[in-house]
Amino acid sequence: MKKIFDPIQLNYLAVKNRLVRSATWEGTANPDGSVTEEAYEIYEELAKGGVGAIITGFTSVALHDYYFDGMMRLCDDSLIPQYKKLTDIIHKENVPVITQLALGAYYREKNGRYMQVEPDDMTEEEIHYVIRQFIDASIRAQKAGFDGVQIHAAHFFFLSRFISPAVNHRKDAYGGTIKNRSRILLQIMDGIRKETEDLHITVKINSNDFTYGGLKESESLAICKLLDQAGIDSIEVSGNGTSVGGIRPHVNEGYFAPFAAEVAYNVSCPVIVVGGFRSLDTMEDLLNKTKLELISLSRPLLREPDLPNKMKADPAVISKCISCNACYSSPSHKCIFRGRDLS
Ligand SMILES: Cc1cc2nc3c(=O)[nH]c(=O)nc-3n(C[C@H](O)[C@H](O)[C@H](O)COP(=O)(O)O)c2cc1C
Ligand code: SF4
Asked: Does 3 reside within a domain?
C-alpha cells in the first residue's frame, strides 16, 4: 500500500513523501539569470511547506534565450554561488531540489543580433552546441548543489518541438523516425551522466502535443521506453495545454493520469504524473491502482505552498486552487488569491 506521506528512495534522491513541486516559472530572475531575493523567499516558503521534492521553474541553459521573461539561467559559472545559496535554503528544510533545464528556443547570432531558429533550419553543429549547453548547465547545477536535473522536453519548449513530428522534418540522423528525433534527448542524458556524478536525471515529456500532426501517446510512450532503456532516473508526464482549467476535486482530477499509468506499466523507472490534482484521497488512490510512484503539483502550491503540511495534518483538506490560471499573468506568478484568504 503506497501512502503519500511515506518516504521513497529514487536514484540519488531520498524523498520524504510522494508529493513533488512541479516546475513553475516565477519570472523573477534578472535578464542575466541572476537570482533575486524574491526567488529565495518563494523557495524557502515552498521548502517549509512540506513538499517531498522541488523542481525549479524552467532554467535556461543559454544566455541568449528570449523565450520568456525572468527565466533563471545556468548559463555561466559566475552564477553558481547564487544558485548555491538557493539550494542551501531549500536543503535546510531537508528537501531535495532538481533544476528544470530548458531551452525556450535556439537563437542564432548574426552581426550581433539573435534570431530564433527552428529545428529544421539548424546545422548539426548547432545541435551539438545545444547538447553541450545542457551538459554544461548540468555540471554547473551539480556545483551549485542541485540533487538532480530535469530535461524539459514538454510544452513545446525547444526539445519538445524537436521531438515533435509536427515541427521536426529533418532528413538526417536527428529527424524522421522516433529514434532519430529522440537522439538529442538521449545524447543530452548520456552526456550529463558521463560528466556529472550521482545526479538524478529526469525528463518532463508531453503525452500529446494536442497539435495537428504532433506527438501522440503512442510516440510519447516509445520515447519514454527509449529513455528508460538508456537509464533515465524518472519520467514526469505532462502535455501541451498543461494547466487545464475547471478542475473539480473528486470529479475530474488528474487529466494525464491514464496515459501516465500506461507509461508506468511499460518502463522500469519511477513515473511522476502532473496535472490537476487537488485532493489527497484521489492522489493516493491513483498511486495504489497503478504503478505510478509520485504526483507533482504546480498551481495548488502557488495557492498554498504549505498544502502538503495541511494535508498531512488533515487528509480531508482539499486544495483551494480553482484552476483559473490568473497566476500565469500575475506579478511573479503569485496566486491572485494569496493574502486575501478569509479562511
Ligand atoms: C504560473 C505557471 C508557471 C509554470 N511554469 C512551468 C515551468 O517552468 N515548467 C514546466 O514544465 N511547467 C510549468 N508550468 C506547468 C506546471 O508545472 C504543471 O504542469 C501544470 O500547471 C499542471 O499542474 P497543476 O494542475 O498542478 O497546476 C507552469 C504552470 C503555471 C501555472
Ligand atoms: S491564480 Fe491561484 S487559484 Fe487561480 S489557478 Fe493560479 S494558483 Fe490556482
From this structure: no
pLDDT score for 341 = 61
Rounded distance from Cα 94 to ligand 2 centre (Å): 27
C-alpha–C-alpha distance, residues 129 and 323, integer Å: 38
| CA 144–ligand 2 middle distance (angstroms) | 31
- As for ligand 2, residues whose beta carbon falls within 6 Å of it are 299, 302-303, 321-327, 335-337
Q: From the centroid of its chain, how far is CA 242?
A: 11
Task: Identify whether the C-beta of residue 163 lies closer than 8 Å to the C-beta of residue 218.
Answer: no
- Which ligand has an atom closest to residue 332 CA? 1
Question: Which residues in the chain land under pLDDT 70?
Answer: 341-343
325 CA to centre of ligand 2 in angstroms: 5
**What domain count does the chain have?**
1
Closest ligand by atom to 326 CA: 2
124 CB neighbour count, 10 Å cutoff:
11
Q: What is the pLDDT of residue 340?
A: 74
CATH number of the domain that 22 lies in? Answer: 3.20.20.70
Range of the domain at 116: 8-333
